[in-house]
């Protein structure tokens, strides 16, 4: 003889069923979300990558063709090639690159955006970096600035959203002035609105080495500010895209392709890149 389920028993059973259905739906939605970007890239046969065109070696416009060129451009083009799709390059600024990725205007960022705790909480990225880059300080030769400590209490130009803002202000006591991008920041430096500017080291080193307009300026401090991993950024939870990009970055290191591209763009590979090349080369294909 079977007993009739009581109301509390039925309620508990219904709750367990609802909870199971909710969990299944959540997992399904999560999986669908994780696959969305890579699926869309292959369906439309195109990946949209945000890049910064603030000057050599990372990105600029060819004066003759008005087409973008540079280190980040080479990386973006090769990502598309290895995924078997076309590439659409979307110019971004330090002030809007985060929003472009959040709003889905780009599928990924290769935009001079190094890893920080705050950024890692917002976005995902392949764990293997393609470089390690820190900030350099550029100033007039007669400014009297010789060390990072010499900027204390003085105005220093950076780009909006720069990860150099916090250490400059908190560790060295600089009066940080943020501008829309690197070109505006450097223009402010030349206009004496700041005593120095801090941006990614490879750009500033090329600037003083090759551009006669900057002959009166120098990079007096040899050590870089907070050297950090440079990575490709994607939206949080897009593990399929993250995994596909991780394989690409590892192969860049394994083959030595990345080192060749850096040399092509007038860059000196960091010790981190040389170590990663040795690591993945030793592991084989």
From TrEMBL:
Residue ranges of the TM segments: none
Residues making up the signal peptide according to the UniProt record: 1-34
Any matching Pfam family: SBP_bac_3
GO cellular component terms attached to this protein's record: extracellular region; outer membrane-bounded periplasmic space
InterPro entries listed in its UniProt record: Bact_solute-bind_prot3 (IPR051455), Solute-binding_3/MltF_N (IPR001638)
Keywords: Signal, Transport
Domain Solute-binding protein family 3/N-terminal intervals: 46-269
GO BP, sorted A to Z: amino acid transport
Domain of life: Bacteria
Family, per entry: Belongs to the bacterial solute-binding protein 3 family.
PANTHER family: ABC TRANSPORTER GLUTAMINE-BINDING PROTEIN GLNH, AMINO ACID ABC TRANSPORTER PERMEASE
Name by which UniProt lists this protein: ABC transporter glutamine-binding protein GlnH
Native organism: Paraburkholderia sediminicola
């Amino acid at each position: 003889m079977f007993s009739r389920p009581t109301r509390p028993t039925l309620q508990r059973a219904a709750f367990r069923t609802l909870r199971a259905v909710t969990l299944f739906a959540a997992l399904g939605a999560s999986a669908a979300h994780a696959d969305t970007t890579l699926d869309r890239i292959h369906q439309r046969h195109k990946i949209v990558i945000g890049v910064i065109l603030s000057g050599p070696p990372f990105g600029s416009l060819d004066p003759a063709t008005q087409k973008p060129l540079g280190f980040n451009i080479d990386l973006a083009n090769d990502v598309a090639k290895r995924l078997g799709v076309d590439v659409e390059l979307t110019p971004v600024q330090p002030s809007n690159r985060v929003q472009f990725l959040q709003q889905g205007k780009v599928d990924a960022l290769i935009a001079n955006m190094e890893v920080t705790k705050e950024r890692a909480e917002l976005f995902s990225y392949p764990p293997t970096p393609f470089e390690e880059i820190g900030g350099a300080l550029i100033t007039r030769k007669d400014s009297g600035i010789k060390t990072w400590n010499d900027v204390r209490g003085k105005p220093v130009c950076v780009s909006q959203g720069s990860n150099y803002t916090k250490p400059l202000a908190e560790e060295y006591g600089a009066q940080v002035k943020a501008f829309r991008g690197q070109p505006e920041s450097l223009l402010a430096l030349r206009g004496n609105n700041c005593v120095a500017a801090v941006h990614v080291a490879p750009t500033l080193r090329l600037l003083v080495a090759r551009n006669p307009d900057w002959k009166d300026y120098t990079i007096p401090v040899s050590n870089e500010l907070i050297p950090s991993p440079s990575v490709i950024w994607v939206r949080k939870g897009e593990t399929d895209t993250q995994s596909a990009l991780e394989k690409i970055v590892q192969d860049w290191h394994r083959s030595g392709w990345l080192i060749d591209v850096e040399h092509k763009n007038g860059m000196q590979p960091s010790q981190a890149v040389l170590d990663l090349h040795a690591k993945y080369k030793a592991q084989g294909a």
